[in-house]
Design a protein that fits this description.
single chain; 269 residues; Phage tail protein beta-alpha-beta fold; 2 domains; 25% strand
């Protein structure tokens, strides 16, 4: 969400057909140099989403790739790099697992390497035997420092004027683009259907500190249009993204509990 709720996170994070396992990814080609910090262990899927965010290319996985280990550990000093260097880092990281990466003008294709078995998936390590007389201690996942930084950036960059008017600093867009998956996890976005036709996008499970919540969206809201352009299909959503990526003001037309409502978001420096 921003510049149409980052214009990328909201406008392009839905499908007008069956719900997708993950929303489509928006992108913005990077110019110059940029730096990135990787988690201690990253999945092939997350690393590929990062790649698409700055190359705007598709990533296609072979049918047998999912059967094999897809976790990678990348140790990077955090130095600034060009898009070409970042792409090479991705290729080197993926191919270090034995997979093969092929590039075309619009697509990265990931397939099994010549020495990787095509039929037998990796075996999981069996857990140690447990004592049935001992009650296991609940475990908590470690805090995500990237999510914490994003939440802090959102708090600082968004100002509520009233219940339907908000201001967002343009600097937050770059922060969002560096961690788009964290933003997209802030809500569940699905097609809103009426009489068998898509009429917009519906939001559920909005997290209180997410970008969605901070600009006034609520659980059950159906966003039908942005600046008068409807969101009834994927093509429409991409058209909205293209036309509004440099917009200074966004008007979100939505239905809330059966009543129309407009949220106005102004992009400021």
């Amino acid at each position: 969400m921003l510049r149409a709720l980052a214009i990328s996170s909201l406008v392009v994070s839905f499908s007008a057909g069956p719900a997708l396992a993950e929303p489509p990814m928006a992108c913005r080609p990077m110019t110059g140099k940029f730096s990135v910090t990787f988690k201690p262990e990253a999945s092939l899927f997350d690393l590929s989403l990062w790649l698409t965010s700055f190359t705007c290319k598709n990533v296609v996985f072979g049918t047998d790739v999912a059967k094999h280990a897809t976790k990678l550990v990348i140790v990077a000093p955090g130095n600034a790099m060009t898009s070409k260097q970042a792409i090479q880092l991705y290729v080197d990281a993926v191919q270090s697992t034995g997979l093969v990466v092929k590039q075309t003008s619009s697509t990265f294709s990931i397939s099994l390497g010549p020495k990787m078995p095509k039929s037998c998936p990796d075996l999981a390590v069996a857990p140690p035997p447990t004592d049935p007389t001992v009650t296991p201690t609940p475990t908590q996942s470690a805090p995500d420092p990237d999510a914490a930084k994003l939440a802090e950036a959102i708090d600082k960059a968004i100002r509520k004027i009233d219940d339907t008017h908000y201001e967002i600093k343009a600097s937050l867009i770059d922060t969002v683009m560096l961690n788009p998956m964290a933003v997209m996890k802030g809500a569940r976005v699905v097609p809103a259907m009426k009489d068998g036709k898509s009429v917009g996008i519906k939001l559920y499970a909005i997290r209180p500190n997410s970008l969605y919540a901070k600009v006034g969206l609520a659980n059950g809201d159906t966003v039908k249009a942005i600046n008068g352009m409807d969101l009834s299909s994927v093509d429409k959503g991409l058209e909205v993204y293209t036309q509004l990526r440099d917009a200074k003001k966004l008007e979100l037309s939505l239905d809330r509990r059966g009543k129309p409502l407009t949220l106005t978001i102004t992009i400021v420096k």
